[in-house]
Amino acid sequence: MGEDYVKMWENLGIDLENHDCLLKALAGFYQQIYLSQENRPEGMKYFDFVVSEAHGLRIKELLEAKQQGKKVVGAFCVYVPEEMIRAVDGICVGLCAGAQIGFEEAEKVLPKNTCDLIKAFIGFKLTQVCPYTESCDLLIGETTCDGKKKAYEILNKLTQKVYVMEVPHMKTERGRELFLKELFALKNKLEELSQQTMTLERFKEEVKVVNEKRKALMRLEQLRSYDPAPISGLDALLVNQIAFYDDPVRFTQKVNELCDELEERVKKGIGVKPKGTPRILITGCPFALPNWKLHHIIETSGAVVVGEESCIGRRYYNNLVPENFTTIEEGIKLLAERYLKTPCACFTPNPERIKEIQNMAKELKAQGIVYYSIQFCTPYLFEAYQVESAVDLPFLRIDTNYSTEDIGQLKTRCEAFIETL
What is the DSSP string of 322-370? Predict the structure, then answer.
């Protein structure tokens, strides 16, 4: 870290010993995974800096904002609308974790056959290593799966600051009405938290801010369609992960600067891998930071990852909210329509997801699909069969967790799969 943040962490109630172990492990992991890559774009230096200060400078910014009266709101899902949080002068940060931290403690309150994503955010809380959770004034959960629903009950006992919004599991008219009512209820909750009334002017302004962030990420995805790929899948994944907790205006500027550089690379034919390198699309569960395992395995096995049909990927930034609404009610309705276009596996039926995968594979010129499931994630495990049946590309299922124990086995499987492309 660039300066001493120990007092700040102490004031947040962070367990300094556990936290120090986490930061040291992540620093080594980052060096091995990211900084060992060759021919990285210069624009990635900003994102390297953000990671190095993820628990330092960014937390300091959040705490300074709180001193100015702003509220920090944590979210675990892409169905939580950042636009509404920002419209009451709040700051939205993503809280899902992608590392095996505190699992022994988590398994004292959770079933062992719970997915690692849930174990991670409970484990991070129980071991007191996440300054984001501790900085939040409100934690917004959602009902996308049974495991998360019940875990939020436990998290609320631990924090006393969890609010759960219901996400329908069928895109019927009744389901749409339910979600719209949930967004209006969330508006009331956010206004109560912030002691501010949402205004039309501010709401429109923040819809535009978030739209601009999504446009920048769409631009980055489109640049990954070129051969040779101007950026690695690992670096693109990192950008998408940082989107959930960096300041959105600053982040958008830096992503667009990176894209400017990538466009120059495309013009000059510069890639991170040779032209003709096999191209992989990953679909499935989210890759919460610092879950870089699968991308690293694929990209050190002779391929390049060119896209993610994932919550850390297209599901997050695809589709914009129309900005021409004239009332807050109209804006929230448009917001609800946009968010319900997100094809999460929690929905039944879910043909939109299959269509999205097919479209992405075509647009990004993917030659093979890797279907990624976190062990015990029932919705995505079930949908694997339907996706494989519908796509006309070589297909590899990966069912894994956050551990490093199966890296050798996964690398052997990925290498064999890539050789067939």
Answer: -S---SHHHHHHHHHHHHTTS--TTSSS-HHHHHHHHHHHHHTT-SEEE
pLDDT digits (tens, 9 = 90+) for 133-174: 999 999 999 999 999 999 999 999 999 999 999 999 999 999
Q: Across 267-303, where does the E strand assignment appear?
A: 279-284
When pLDDT is averaged across residues 387-407 and rounded to a whole number, the result is: 96
The strands making up 304-309's β-sheet, listed across from edge to edge, are 304-309, 279-284, 368-374, 395-400
Q: Which pLDDT band holds residue 3 (cuts at 50, 70, 90)? A: low
Q: What are phi and psi of 229, to 5 degrees?
A: -65, 125
Structure tokens at 363: 């647009």
Decide: 207 and 331 in contact? Cβ < 8 Å: yes
Nearest CA to 381 among 191, 12, 128, 115?
115
Mean pLDDT of 24-40: 94
Span 193-241, pLDDT tens digits: 999 999 999 999 999 999 999 999 999 999 999 999 999 999 999 999 9
Residue type, 17: E
Question: Among the residues of 164-304, which ranges form H helices?
Answer: 173-194, 200-223, 233-242, 248-268, 293-299
DSSP-derived pairing of the beta strands 138-142 and 71-75 = parallel
And the tokens for 329? Answer: 């009610």
If you ran DSSP here, which 8-state letter would residue 225 be given?
A: T
pLDDT class of 96 with cuts at 50, 70, 90: confident
CA 259-265-271 angle, 5° bins: 110
Q: Are 124 and 97 in contact (CB under 8 A)?
A: yes
One-letter amino acid for residue 398 of the chain: I
Q: What angle do CA 56, 148, 189 make, to 5 degrees?
A: 70
Phi-psi region of 370 (alpha: psi -120 to 50; beta: other; left: phi over 0): beta
Q: In a 3-state reduction of DSSP, which class is residue 280?
A: strand
Assign 2 a pLDDT band (cuts: 50, 70, 90): very low
In 3D space, the residue among 390, 417, 386 whose CA is nearest the CA of residue 398 turns out to be 417
For residue 93, report the phi and psi dihedrals to the nearest 5 degrees.
-130, 145
Provide, for the chain, the percentages of residues in helix, strand and coil under a 3-state DSSP scheme, each rounded to the nearest 5: 55, 10, 35
Nearest-5° Cα angle at 144, 140 to 150: 70
Residues 367 and 280 sit within 8 Å (Cβ to Cβ): yes
CA angle 75/78/83 to nearest 5° reads 75
Answer whether 344's CB lies under 8 Å from 144's CB: yes
